[in-house]
UniProtKB/TrEMBL annotation, chains A, B:
Protein name: Transcriptional regulator
Domain HTH cro/C1-type: 11-65
Organism: Flavipsychrobacter stenotrophus
Transmembrane segments: none
Top-level taxonomy: Bacteria, Pseudomonadati, Bacteroidota, Chitinophagia, Chitinophagales
PANTHER family for the chain: HTH-TYPE TRANSCRIPTIONAL REGULATOR, HTH-TYPE TRANSCRIPTIONAL REGULATOR SUTR
Domain of life according to the entry: Bacteria
Keywords: DNA-binding, Transcription, Transcription regulation
GO cellular component entries: cytosol
PROSITE patterns for this protein: HTH_CROC1 (PS50943)
Molecular-function annotations in GO: DNA binding; DNA-binding transcription factor activity
DNA sequence: GGAGTAATGACACTCATAGTCCGTTGACTT
DNA sequence: AAGTCAACGGACTATGAGTGTCATTACTCC
């Protein structure tokens, strides 16, 4: 599966666990609201700097972010 | 520390473990040799699609790639 | 010393796309 | 009706993708 979709699904999963809206997470990660929608739906090939901000906003470590079913072979 | 530098260091570390030159890894990941140099030296804010190709070339999982000292808080 | 080779580094450049900002729409809730 | 949320679109600017060129370092061989 497309890495963009995997990342998007993982972000959505974690966002919902935190009870945040897309906009709230977007603000926390300092990205645009519409951009966050695209990311979650796998339409954006995000850079590691933006990914880092989103992971921080999700209050999770890199290792834990990627240690999920989406990223298993 | 800058996420770009962390990623670069981690790539270099894994590349050396495999005994590959930058050029050999670059070819395996289908990126330019000079691009790989820039990545390892933290000068490129790479996208997840390119990162995926490099991680595959390093024969490692996402989780293991990020489960390293560089990415610990 | 000088010639050759392999590996890396440092730029500069073009072109595609990452990322922002404006808005609208539809589903759902109160 | 009014508010919240997700999705989508168009236009725009900033920056990543990808390549070319030259320099440097370290090594080997003559």
């Amino acid at each position: 599966m497309d890495i963009k979709l995997k990342v998007g699904q993982r972000i959505k999963e974690l966002r919902l666990q935190l009870g945040l809206s897309q906009e709230a997470l977007a603000n926390k990660a300092d990205v645009d609201r519409t951009y966050m929608t695209d990311v979650e739906n796998g339409r954006r090939n995000i850079s590691v700097e933006v990914l880092e901000r989103i992971i921080m906003a999700l209050e999770i470590s890199y290792a834990d972010f990627f240690n999920a079913k989406e990223f298993m072979k």
